[in-house]
Design brief:
The complex is a heterodimer of chains A (323) and B (116). Chain A has 323 residues and is mainly α. Helices cover 76% and strands 1% of the residues of chain A. In chain B, strands 1-3-2 form a three-stranded antiparallel β-sheet. The chains are: A mainly alpha (323), B alpha+beta (116). Chains A and B meet through α2 and α4 of A and α3 and α4 of B.
Chain lengths: 323, 116
């Protein structure tokens, strides 16, 4: 049955994404499914049944005439010819996911190293070994920046995804979706622990008190660093999957492969989209700035629940309602 | 073995579908199966042809579609059923007359060679 579905999807891939076309696809699939099930019940082998169903399917040109899609079909075909979309293979997709994982690791490691670099002067500064501390800091920064630069080259082989128009077929899209789904739980854990670490970064300061203040302060940066590491890691990989699922032309049926998640969110304007996107980084900055300026870590956490409640209001004002 | 020419039969796909829907409302695959049975396995309508006919006839108001469950006990899947309209019945009758005429005219030019 999977073969039949993929066959139908590939037939429809270049057709415009309209409700008429979606209905036609669903109806045809239903008919093919009925026929397939009956052939299987009659004792046909799976391969024979698939063969029969596909050979008796007919052709789409006939259909597009009656759906009043002649012009659209023509237009789509013409656009395709001029655009010349690059077909991304499953192997390339696997390769991209691998290098995206590598990129995420080096990027988040780099940021982690930059954040914890200040721990050096804090620890050794109080022992009178300031030079060692500063040396350590610059080592960390050098390694961190190196790591970030390296991460930006990790996807070099796949720059065509950015510069060329690409497309993926239905089975590749399902592969990506499958992986995104299984990664979703890892990402959720990364986000939760990451945010918790950032929020709780003042705990070591309180715990170690003023006598071992330098331990608390350096641990604070480790907490924030590791928290940011987890958040960046999870988000970078997750964005990679989204990027793959968005390569198809949104005006055609193949644009629906990505599933409903992206389609649901529509912003009222470009500004609204930007506001939603920078919301959490902005809140994090506010939290860190206020906390560092006042050093009232015991109370500044209140920013988070307030921001959480406000987020809902921001979303309501910025996103379009569902149809 | 002579196969049926799709060019010739095209004008009568609607007639076949309407004749089936005249008996009772039905859905895609069931209609295509009945066409095969009634034609004694000599004509198998393609899925795209069938769906085209549905959309075209629905646009012309010869048939109406509605969604219902396949089996009355309610365990079936939801399917799009089609039922014939009064306008469709009229159209069917006129197509039948047209066919009688066509057949009459073409018959005059047909010579049967050999036995059977």
């Amino acid at each position: 049955m999977e073969t039949i579905k993929n066959y139908l999807e590939s037939m429809f891939a270049s057709l415009p994404n309209t409700s008429e076309v979606r209905k036609a696809k669903a109806e045809l699939l239903q008919m093919m499914e009925d026929k397939y099930n009956e052939l299987i019940e009659e004792g046909e082998s799976e391969n024979a049944a698939v063969g029969t169903v596909i050979s008796e399917f007919g052709n789409l040109e006939e259909l597009s005439d009656d759906l009043g899609l002649k012009e659209e079909l023509h237009e789509t075909l013409e656009r395709q010819a001029s655009e010349d979309r690059r077909h991304v293979t499953l192997d390339e997709v696997k390769g991209f996911i691998d290098s995206r994982t590598k990129k995420a690791l080096f990027l988040s490691l780099g940021i982690f190293l930059c954040i914890i670099s200040v721990a050096g002067p804090i620890i050794f500064g109080s022992n009178g070994k300031a030079a060692l501390g500063v040396g350590l800091m610059f080592t960390c920064i050098t390694l961190g920046v190196g790591s970030i630069i390296y991460s930006s080259f990790a996807e070099h082989d796949f720059s065509f995804l950015k510069h060329e128009l690409c497309m993926i077929d239905m089975s590749t899209a399902s592969y990506v979706k499958e992986h995104r789904r299984s990664f979703e739980s890892i990402r959720a854990i990364c986000m939760t622990i990451g945010v918790m670490l950032c929020v709780a970064c003042w705990v070591p300061c309180v715990f170690f008190g003023s006598s071992y203040g330098y331990v608390g302060a350096s641990l604070l940066f480790f907490f924030v660093g590791f928290g940011v590491f987890l958040i960046v890691y999870g988000n970078t990989i997750s964005k990679g999957y989204d990027k793959l699922l968005r390569v198809n032309d949104n005006n055609t049926i193949s644009g629906t492969y990505s599933g409903k998640t992206e389609k649901e969110v529509r912003y009222k304007s470009k500004t609204a989209e930007t506001i939603v996107q920078v919301y959490w980084p902005f809140v994090t900055s506010i939290y860190l700035i206020v906390s560092f300026l006042t050093f009232q870590w015991g109370i500044t956490w209140i920013i988070w629940p307030i921001a959480g409640a406000a987020h809902k209001a921001v979303l309501i004002n910025c996103q379009e309602d569902d149809e | 073995m002579v196969a049926i020419s799709s060019d010739v039969i095209r004008g009568y796909n609607d007639t076949m579908i309407l004749s089936i829907l005249k008996k009772e409302p039905s859905y895609g695959y069931s209609i295509s199966k009945q066409i095969k049975t009634i034609s004694d396995g000599k004509y198998a309508i393609k899925e795209t042809t069938l769906y085209s006919a549905f959309t075209r006839m629905e646009k012309n108001e010869y048939i109406e579609s509605f969604v219902a469950e396949q089996s009355p006990d309610g365990n079936g899947k939801k399917r799009t059923y089609y039922r014939i309209t009064d306008k469709g019945l009229e159209y069917y009758d006129s197509k039948c007359e047209e066919w009688e005429l066509t057949k009459e005219v073409v018959e005059n030019f047909i010579e049967y060679k050999g036995e059977e």
